[in-house]
Amino acid sequence: MAAIASAPHFAQEHGGHAKEHDNSLWSWVTTVDHKRIGILYGVSSFLFFLLGGIEASLIRTQLIVPNNRLVDPDTFNQLTTMHALTMVFLALMPLTAAFFNIAVPLMIGARDVAFPRLNAFSYWTFLVGALILNFGWIYGGSPDSGWFAYANITSRQYSPGPGMDYYTLGLQVLGVASMAAALNFIVTILNMRAPGMTLMRMPVFVWMTLVTSILIVLAFPVITVALIFLALDRMVGTSFFNPTGGGDPILWQHLFWIFGHPEVYILILPAMGVVSEILPTFSRKPLFGYHFVVYSGVAIGFLAFGVWSHHMFATGLGPIADSGFALATMLIAIPTGVKIFNWIGTLWDGAIRFTTAMLFATAFIAVFIVGGLSGVMHASPPAVLQQSATYFIVAHIHYVLFGGTIFGLFGGIYYWFPKVSGRLLSESAGKVHFWLTMVGMNIAFFPMHFLGLDGMPRRIYTYGADMGWSFWNLVSTLGVYLIIVGTLIFIGNIVWSVRSGVVAFSDPWDAATLEWSIPSPPPEHNFDRIPVVASARPLWDWKYGAAHSHESHAHAPIAGAQHGDDGEHIHMPNPSYWPLVTAVGLAVIAFGILFWIPMAIFGVFLLFFGINSWAFEPAG
Amino acid sequence: MTASHATATTHVDTSPDSGYGTTLRISHRKLLMWAFLASDCMFFGTLIANFITYFTRNEGTSPFTFLDIPYTSVSAFVLLMSSLTMVIALACIQRGDEIGMRIWLVATALLGSVFLGGQYFEFTEFYHKGMQLTGVNLFSSAFFTLTGTHGLHVTVGVIWLLSLVVVSFTKGIKSSESLNVEIAGLYWHFVDVVWIIIFAAVYLVGNTMTAPPLRGG
Amino acid sequence: MKGRHAIGVAATLLFTLLTACDAPGPMWFWMRPESNFARILQDLFTQIVVLAVVVFVIVEGALLWAILRFRAESSTRVPTQTHGNTRMEIAWTIAPTLVLVAIAVPTVRTVFETYNPPKVANPIRIVAVGHQWWWEFQYPDLNIITANEIVFPAGQQVNLEIKSADVVHAFWIPKLGGKRDAIPMRTNVLWWTADQPGTYYGQCTQLCGTSHANMRLRAIVKTDAEWQAWLSAMGSATGVPPSRAPENVQRGYQLVSTGACIGCHAIKGTSLVARAGPDLTRFGDRITLGSGLYPNDEAHLIAWLRDPQGSKPGNKMPNLGLSDEDAAAIAAYLHSLK
Prior knowledge:
The structure holds three protein chains of three kinds.
Chain A: H1 2-5, H2 25-29, H3 34-62, H4 73-108, H5 116-134, H6 163-191, H7 204-235, H8 249-283, H9 290-303, H10 319-347, H11 356-378, H12 381-387, H13 391-421, H14 427-445, H15 447-453, H16 470-500, H17 538-544, H18 578-595, H19 597-616
Helix pairs in contact in A: 3-4, 3-5, 3-16, 4-5, 4-6, 4-8, 4-13, 5-6, 5-18, 6-7, 6-18, 7-8, 7-9, 8-11, 8-13, 9-10, 10-11, 11-13, 11-14, 13-14, 13-15, 14-16, 15-16, 18-19
Chain B: H1 28-54, H2 69-94, H3 98-129, H4 138-170, H5 179-207
Helix pairs in contact in B: 1-4, 1-5, 2-3, 2-5, 3-4, 4-5
Chain C: H1 2-18, H2 36-69, H3 86-114, E1 124-131, E2 134-139, E3 144-147, E4 149-153, E5 157-164, E6 169-171, E7 180-182, E8 188-193, E9 198-203, E10 216-222, H4 224-235, H5 247-258, E11 288-289, E12 294-295, H6 298-306, H7 308-311, H8 324-336
Parallel strand pairs in C: 1-5, 4-10
Antiparallel strand pairs in C: 1-2, 2-3, 5-8, 6-7, 9-10, 11-12
Helix pairs in contact in C: 2-3, 5-8, 6-8
């Protein structure tokens, strides 16, 4: 009963009330509010998703018929490289960051993240990194050696242009952004939870954020070193990866994949967290086996560091290493599989409502099963000697990243859009978007399994008419066009609903977690009073009592004060432009290294100036 | 310190630095530094692993043509002593002795600078003997990247400590603000520990290995 | 909604059935092994696929059942708030573990079985060297060097050593087995015994630059008799045309042996000994040109000679500015090399 006694006063049902603070450009540039930063990440990442999609469409259109001449091979190699880099680092990761920003503080009952200015810095640094990575389209040519950039084709000798320099510097800067954000969220989640919210009462999405952040913090330093070595090789003449100088190209592969494999779990775990929130809400019952799902996530985090050489089975590691990594890879399939069963268990015997968010979450499971099973096929080195570097792998990648991450995140957008904007996205447009995307995705990527079995290698800009690959390439491209149509409808939905969507109140879905106990959109300070929680489903218990009730109560708004009940003034951190200045310092350093060293030195001073001013800025 | 809800008979430290109001009862900033140090472990770990991988790619010239264990032992000792002075500096400010803190922070920065000076001297010696960052000698590339990165970390630390001294002179640092010094201390001790590990991996363990011929294909 | 779900399911099934429609191409490897190595890999792969399909049917089936059966009829019913079932969860942790063990055991066995070439009496030792963007094949014990078409007999084990002269490539002939990377300063190994004579397609499968897509190859698998004939022809090959050769061929020989070709190519028996480009000994015997890219006929060869870049973008072979007649003469000469 103490749980009910600490129930927060639900905010007055003012859905769609006027914004409390100003909407000027300057307020957005200097914001340190996690909700706004989340929106910035969300919009930016989506724009990059569109850019990556354009790159994909060009790739697929080039491959729609054999011996096509839409783009030349060098441009094609840039397109495949940039499509992957854009999607992984500029679309998926920042979109995930958007969710971390918007949902995590609200779900743990906090007013913001632990370091609001560091949060803003992460966003601006991400933009700087994105600019550097894409600069090649404007000048000099983009990186073109694949997103994993295997040495030694990345050496200055074989890649003389600036493309690979944009790669090293761009990814380095993006790494800084990701690390800063991850450190921020680790501290936030460990240290800012509402009273009573033990670790095992945190929402699964928060758990996945924590595991993901720890993965980032431990994996990114490895690629930082690799990029430093590559940059030194290219700019100063060392031979870390240069075989003629005594170096070993395989070292790059090891370093890259020690980062790269955790990276793919960084990409999928948050989406799994989102799905773990959506499924219980729209099944109207708790997540089945909360503990197992959490432990699986943690286990995946641990094991992620032990499997990297399964990307290298064709390099000749030796039978012992091959076997070891094969077994480790199969091991990691177990916690992944367990989650799937837990999700099905959540649906089982539930009362399922198929909102668009739920459609995406359910489709995530269906599609991820396919991607996971093809992943298990890749875990066997002898078998993978045939599949490796073919479209069979491309199929796996897109089933887990598109059908997995992107579906999960789309679900999250439909789920949390009302909380952020105060309006619901159109369900009818949403369902059209969903079906076009679901059908399009399967038409685009399932045939790639056949193309792989038919021997079609990856990263080829064209193929002969006698190879037997023409039919499925055509089909696959048509599937991509279907996805494009669906995406356009989605954009229309967002643009329309932001202004004219059905007004959303605090809890449109009858959900169970804390973010639904405050208005939509939340006030700047989030919670009038920090709630005290007594279970993993605090809102559900406050609405329906800890005893199981089979009668659903209508939303019962309890009028309450808008300010702290005891009259205390809730002070939120002041906006600041120093995070932006510091990020610009990084940009100046990077472009200085690329084009003119004195500028880089100036950049160092600018960076220190930014950091210094930030450190001594009067505290909020 | 336990928080008391009742009367004001027990003093409750409600400053953010003490971790008041946080779930783990530790200041956000201290937790951030620990988490950052975990990532820095991975960073140095990678550099050290790479060094070990490339240690034997030295074109037949034993690294110990260049590396001088006695010399490096002295500079390691200097850095170790700087950790001691750091501890003393923190103890000073925790009991309110700001002047003592200034002295011992300067001492720490000084010892760190002596270490850096020693590194600089050692590296110029190597350079003149032919061991350089670039070129085909991978042992030297790996060595300089590893020790150079460590040196950069020490430099950042020295600047940080001196800026604390400057703040102490301009604004003053109270004993309730000792967390600022403590966090710098955490970083400094980390940098010192990393050096011990580098010293062991590069100089001591390497001494037990011979130099097999360069790998060929 | 239910109707639309059923359509979605049916469409997916139909689509899956359509897979049988498109005829397998020359690089299709599943269920089409043509060597012992390929067969071993395929057997393992098939075992895994069968298990995967079973798991797929069960799990997707359960998912489908759940979403069809447990739809909310009323908007207010709150179902039983089950939190979990530890026994079930343990069971469904053990079950995938068992499936994975069923995959792991044959996997490890096969890794050790296939990693190094089995010891046989007289393997044929071939060294494949990847270049940007063509394949060099050396037969060190037989003193033969050729390019782009790897020749060997059926029924005898080939031990292939794979190297690279520049960047990382990968060697793959799908029907004869798996692939291995070609890494500079390293040697990787593949082995197989081809079942029967024939022509098999291969391709480089590691992005290696501009014409990665064009770095293809053929495996020409011969009968024993054909193999002996090839060996002896390669042994006695000479690039100098006999005196009774047509004038065009003679003229082509003159151009080749005195022109820029000397800088990059080798032809046995002539003054050309350079190794920067493919060896052209008995070039006329090859069925493809440009590393598996085009049929080795007059039209394609002349097009190549007149515009190497146009035939293969990024081609290291420069445009020599040949006239029509010169190109035709050189083509005639090269095709005479048999």
